[in-house]
Design goal:
Blueprint: E1 3-11, E2 25-34, E3 40-46, E4 66-68, E5 71-75, E6 80-84, E7 89-94, E8 102-107, E9 113-117, E10 122-126, E11 132-137, E12 166-172, E13 175-180, E14 185-188, E15 195-197, E16 203-209, E17 212-217, E18 221-226, E19 232-237, E20 251-257, E21 262-268, H1 285-288, E22 294-299, E23 304-310, E24 318-324
Antiparallel strand pairs: 1-2, 1-24, 2-3, 4-5, 5-6, 6-7, 8-9, 9-10, 10-11, 12-13, 13-14, 14-15, 16-17, 17-18, 18-19, 20-21, 21-22, 22-23
Length: 344
Amino acid sequence: MRNLYVLGAREKVRFLKDEEEWRLYDRALVVRVDIETKASEVCAEHITPLEARASGNSSVVFKCGTLQGNTLYACTSTEVLIYEVPEFIRTGYISLPCFNDLHHVTPTPEGHLLVANTGLDMVVELTRDGKLCREWNVLGEDPWSRFSKSIDYRKVETTKPHHSHPNFVFQIENEIWVTRFDQKDAVCLTHPGQRIEIGVQKPHDGHVIGDRIYFTTVDGNIVVVEKNTLRTVEAVDLKTIDNPERALLGWCRGLLVLDESRVWVGFTRVRKTKFKENLNWVRHAFKEGEKPTHIALYDLSAQKCLDEVNLEKVGVNVVFSIFPAPESPTEGRPRMGKKGPDAG
């Protein structure tokens, strides 16, 4: 595999170095990276229209998505976008008033969409035309006990502090699961009571690959869980691998599993912001040094870093998803998405 798609965003030129994270990024990006030459090209960029964000200063970022066949499902904080790749023609767009701080979108076998509606501590199920089918509060509460259906949450800059901060939706057989940041676990929404303890730190991605589930934690662990027993069979701390200077790897988000041993992992440079998260792992970040936003290929069995790409050199300052890309676009260079909400 020579080429990868990376989903993320470009950072604004900032004058205030402690600006909030929800104002840091001005353009959502999908970048195609040649991991041999380290060359790259922008496949798609997107700016959320003003009617779908809190203000003109609000961040625009592609959060976690799903690549299924030649269809890419992506989301910003307030939108779901669907592209046909490798041409990156946009074929779908949904933005609903209940959307706030979306973190992940993935399709169901029935053709619906599951969305981690993080700002409202929910997961929602939608049709492709944006009709709400089901909604779950990830703590088992009434989904609307703390929120109002009459408010357009796209216009609310942040609802932090969240009670759970659900990050990533996945399915085991026909059951729907979600990772919960603050509870350090993953729970089943359609069969309440089933739970996967992550424990070592707060989780982000959760990918079902064969009979295993691969989780990332934001401080740089890969936790591997057996699908049938829901028990951890391996936990690898990436901070201890090929890191003699003990540099902070960054926010660990984005995972591409190549086989049982090799995984690509995304890391976003830790920024100083006014909003203080309760994360002990960043306490000494600015004393011991930090790495730039990058992706790295690890051999988990050999405990070795095999390759690394500095994404800041290709204009990507935050990374959320990594996918395999075709060797070459079918029609020359990739095209930008259709006009409409992408324009701006």
